[in-house]
Amino acid sequence: MSTLLQVKHLKKYFPTKSGLLHAVDNVSFSIEEGRTLGVVGESGCGKSTLGRVILHLLPATEGQILFDGADISNPTKAQLHNLRRNMQMVFQDPYSSINPRQSVAEIIGEPLKVYKMCKSRDEYNRRVRELMDIVGLPERYEHSYPHELDGGRRQRIGIGRALALNPRFIVCDEPVSALDVSIQAQILNLMMDLQDELNLTYIFVTHDLSVVKHISDDIMVMYLGVVVENSSSKELFGRQLHPYTKALLSAIPRAKLGVRRNRILLKGELASPIEPPKACRFAPRCPYADARCRSCEPELEEVLPGHFVACHQVREINNL
Ligand code: SF4
Questions:
Q1: How far is CA 103 from the centre of its chain?
Q2: In this model, does residue 138 exceed pLDDT 60?
C-alpha cells in the first residue's frame, strides 16, 4: 500500500473581531491508499474545516498537502481543475449541496458534462445509469427530483455525483448524521462496498464514534483545532490514552444488554479557539490538569507503536 495523502503542519485561521480563530492548528497526518481515516470530535473542533482545506474549498493559512507524492498546497487553476477529478466530497445534507430543480440523472451527470467525460449522448446516458446502479438507485428514479426522495436516496445521489469522475479520494463530511439509524447502516455499507470495488480512500468526518468504528481503519481525534490522539481504529477502541478520547468513548452506548459503560462527564468551560494560549486546550475540562498543562502545549508523540497522543501526563494517567 502506498501513501495517497500527506498533510503537514496544516493551519486554517479565520479573522474575527476578537482575533484569529484557530480552526485547524498544526495538523499533520497521512493516509494509505484504499484506507479510511475517521476524524472525530465535538462540533467546532475543526474536523469539517480540515476536510474543506484539503480539498481547496477553503484556502489554507499555512502548511503542506501532498497528493500521490505531488505538492498540491498551492495549485494553479488548471491543477485545481484536475485535482477535482481525483478528490471529491460527500456532504452531510445532500439536499443543500444539490440543485433541487435538477432531476436525479441531471445531478449525477453534471460533473460528466463539466469535465466532458463522455463522447456521445448515449455514452453519457449509459454512464449516468451505471452510476445510479452503483449507488443502488433504481432506473425509475432517473427523472425524479430530490424532494420526491427520502434522505437515504438523496445521499445516494450525492455519492453517485461524487463518483462520477472516478475519484481516488473522497472527504465524507458527516454523510449519515442526518439519516435514520436503519438508513445510516445501508449508506455506510454502500460506502464500504464502493471502497472495496473502486479502491477509494476516505476521510470520514463525524461526531459519532459508533459510526466511525464501523467504517474506519484509523482514527484521529480532534479537540479545538488540534489532534489529541491518532491510532488504528482497533487500537483506539481497545485502549484510549487521552483523557478527552476516554470521555468521548464513554458516551457510546454498549450493544450488550446489562453491560454499562461508566460515562465520563466533562465539567468546565470549553477554551476559546480565538488566539488560544500556549497551553493544553483541554486543560479547563481535564480532571488531571496541572500547572504544566496550563502553561505548555503538549505535542503529539508516539506513546505506543503507531499510537500518537498529545498529553503531558499520558504515561502517568495510563500507567505506561
Ligand atoms: Fe489533561 Fe494535561 Fe493531558 Fe491536557 S496535557 S489532557 S490538561 S493531563
A1: 28
A2: yes
Edge-to-edge strands, sheet with 70-71: 19-32, 3-16, 62-67, 70-71
CA 98/CA 91 separation, integer angstroms:
10
- CB-ligand 1 contact for 313 (6 Å cutoff): yes
CATH code for the domain defined by 3-86+167-318: 3.40.50.300
Tell whether ligand 1 has an atom less than 6 A from the beta carbon of residue 223: no
Which pTM does this prediction carry? 0.94
Across the range 65-73, mean pLDDT stands at 96
Ligand 1 atom nearest the C-alpha of 243 is 6
Cell numbers 452510476: residue: 131
Closest CA to 121 of 144, 105, 136: 105
Tell me if 311 CB under 6 Å of ligand 1.
Answer: yes
- Max mean pLDDT range (34-48, 174-188, 206-220): 34-48
Q: Is 58 exposed, middle or buried (0-12, 13-18, 19+ CB in 10 A)?
A: middle
pLDDT mean across residues, the chain: 93
From the CA of 290, give the closest atom in ligand 1: 2
Residue 193: CB atoms within 10 Å: 12
Closest to 264 in 3D by CA, of 233, 240, 299: 240
Domain positions in the chain are 3-86+167-318, 87-166
- Does 283 sit in the ligand 1 pocket, CB within 6 Å? yes
Pocket test residue of 245, 313, 315, 317 for ligand 1, highest count of atoms within 8 A of CB: 313
